[in-house]
Structure to design on (114 residues):
């Protein structure tokens, strides 16, 4: 999945002063986007185990389009069942935003890099 995102971002080079986008650029953008909403969560890498709860990803999706996430449907993401609910919801919200989806709920739960 990250490869596909990087390929897409390479096509958007005009917004990055002509340089290729890297994982570090994506991390910086995602953390800045979430922080701009007043939320304190962040991710350190694409291997960050805290991503398994789905909370950061939902906060990022909400930062992109504030009305897209129904927070009443979001769990704390502490148990495997809660993580699965959040991961499934992430995919639903991302599709609603028109995102290309290259992962399954289990990939979010297990923090699989794609």
């Amino acid at each position: 999945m990250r490869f596909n995102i990087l390929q897409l971002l390479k096509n958007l080079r005009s917004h990055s002063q002509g340089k290729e986008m890297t994982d570090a650029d994506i991390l910086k953008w995602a953390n800045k986007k979430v922080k701009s909403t007043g939320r304190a969560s962040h991710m350190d890498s694409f291997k960050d185990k805290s991503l398994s709860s789905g909370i950061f990803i939902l906060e990022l999706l909400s930062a992109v389009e504030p009305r897209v996430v129904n927070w009443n449907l979001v769990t704390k993401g502490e148990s495997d069942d809660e993580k699965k609910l959040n991961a499934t919801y992430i995919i639903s919200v991302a599709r609603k935003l028109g995102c290309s989806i290259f992962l399954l709920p289990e990939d979010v739960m297990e923090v699989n890099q794609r």
Observations:
- Residues 22-110 form a domain with the Actin-binding Protein, T-fimbrin; domain 1 fold (CATH 1.10.418.10).
- The mean pLDDT is 89.
